[in-house]
Amino acid sequence: MLGTHPALLQFIRYVIAGGVATAAHIVLFHLVAWKVFPSLQANDYAVRFFGLKIREVNDYSRARNSMLGNVIAFVFSNMVAYLINIFWVFERGRHSLLVEVVLFYLVSGISMAIGTVLMGLLIRRLRLLTTFAFGANLVAAVMINYVMRKYLIFQG
């Protein structure tokens, strides 16, 4: 049945690939937020679930540190996304490899920047839990990336 609907199959693959890349991003973000740039709170789900010992920081430092951690996680998880996209979801060939990688990171970078600013604002202004602010960041990125990757970067 899916063979007759290649666009649906491609979208399902994109969702799976996005899930893998998102999982990589979440794991990296939380590791960095726990060990490198402290930005987790006692109420964060990862802290409670894994019983992590954290260093408490004020909201200003937490916002800054979470944004730094998000950038670090982005660089690595975006490479995971790119590799899965070129080997399993989309067809390469619209651009040279270098242009394709630059466009991929540019589009992802713009959506990540929008999401990261949103995350920082939600923490600073609304004092939102880091986990929820991070989730808002992910939603903002997903909304932009599929369309841009499908119609601008790859050959559909």
Quick structural summary:
By secondary structure, the protein is an all-alpha fold. Helix content is 78%, strand content 0%. Its main location: membrane.
Quantity of strands, as a count = 0
| C-alpha-based Rg, rounded | 17 Å
Mean pLDDT: 89
Helical fraction equals over 70%
Outline the biggest β-sheet: none
> How many separate domains make up the residues?
1
Q: How are the SSEs ordered, and which strands pair?
A:
Blueprint: H1 6-35, H2 45-50, H3 59-89, H4 97-126, H5 130-153
Describe this protein's structure.
Keywords: Membrane, Transmembrane, Transmembrane helix. Pfam families: GtrA_DPMS_TM. It is a single chain. This protein has helices spanning 6-35, 45-50, 59-89, 97-126, 130-153. With 156 residues, it is mostly helical.
Tags for this entry?
elongated, 78% helix, membrane, Putative flippase GtrA, 156 residues
